[in-house]
Amino acid sequence: MISNSLYEYIDKESIGSDLICLLCHNPFIDPTVTQCGDTYCRQCIEKYMRNGSHCPSQSCNQLLSTDHLIPPSHNFISILDKLKVRCQLCEKTNINRGTFDEHIKTSCPECILDCPGKNIGCQWFGSRNEHDEHTKTCLFEKLGRMVDILYKVIENQSLDIEKLQKETQQQTTEIGQQKTEIEQQKAQLQQQQIQISDIQSENQTQKNGTASVCKQITILQEEINKLKSTALWFCK
Ligand SMILES: [Zn+2]
Ligand SMILES: [Zn+2]
Ligand SMILES: [Zn+2]
Ligand SMILES: [Zn+2]
């Protein structure tokens, strides 16, 4: 919550005593209810309990416990939110206390703001009134916007690079798989070559066998011829 020193209550005397904190004598800020049923600002009672152990209400004086601080009803909070205050910066009056933070953050013309280019070096600060005028001419602010654009460009490029890296990784995996497949095919080919050379040497052995059978046949024929001519000679 924005400092309550930036506003003052309108017609404070008319605010009911049931809305006033016994410890700070102001309308409750962030109220909390003790175990004994009394209400205090959270900050006030927490600060009080660092030294005191019994309820500050004279008529109550019961033992307090930090474990038993509960928020009040929504209704009670909304009554507090509707208390009327005046902004001490711009003098605007009749603001609901519950919307005062918003008034400071979004509309109070006297609220002091830093230049949006503060983080890149602009030292300017001033009221919201002058702020727009300043940002129109501030070089830092313009530079800041360019820096933002550049950041976006870099961010996009980083995303592209990431995508490419992922694709490359996938391709590497695929290449690895293809390599393994080629290795397997190579091994199969080698096995087939071994089988082929086995068959070739078997063929050779069979050829050799056939050749020697042929030779024997020739020898036998020659012997038969010899026998034939001997037989013919005897028949004469
Ligand atoms: Zn208080
Ligand atoms: Zn009490
Ligand atoms: Zn204001
Ligand atoms: Zn600036």
Automatic annotation (TrEMBL):
Do the record's keywords include Zinc-finger? yes
Q: List the InterPro entries hit by this protein, alphabetically.
A: Znf_RING, Znf_RING/FYVE/PHD, Znf_TRAF
Q: Does the keyword Coiled coil apply?
A: yes
Coiled-coil regions, chain positions:
147-202
Q: Name one Pfam family in it.
A: zf-C3HC4_2
Which UniProt keyword terms apply here?
Answer: Coiled coil, Metal-binding, Zinc, Zinc-finger
Which GO terms of the molecular function aspect are on file? Answer: zinc ion binding
| Residue span, RING-type domain | 21-56
**Designated name of the protein:** RING-type domain-containing protein
Q: What organism does the record attribute this protein to?
A: Rotaria socialis
